[in-house]
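In response to reviewer comment 3 from the previous cycle, which asked for concrete evidence that the modeling workflow produces usable outputs, we include below a single protein chain processed end to end. The sequence was submitted unchanged, and the resulting structure tokens are shown without manual editing.
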Amino acid sequence: MRWHPRGYGGERRSTQDVKREGWVEQGVLAVSVEDHRLTWPERELVKQLGEKLYGRRIAPRRVAS
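The workflow returned the following structure tokens.
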């Protein structure tokens, strides 16, 4: 038999559930620029908002062939 302190057992919530609850309960939105559900203009808007609030992203490094 395993014993877990209260609040440490059970099922883990999915990241989508956490994001949804954050938006509904606190008005916090977590969106990836690469989210395939977004259209190009929507991804561009997310990118522009992120750059305005937090600055430019560091470009991923390319591996030399």
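The chain has a mean pLDDT of 88. We consider this sufficient to address the reviewer's concern, and the full set will be provided in the supplementary archive.
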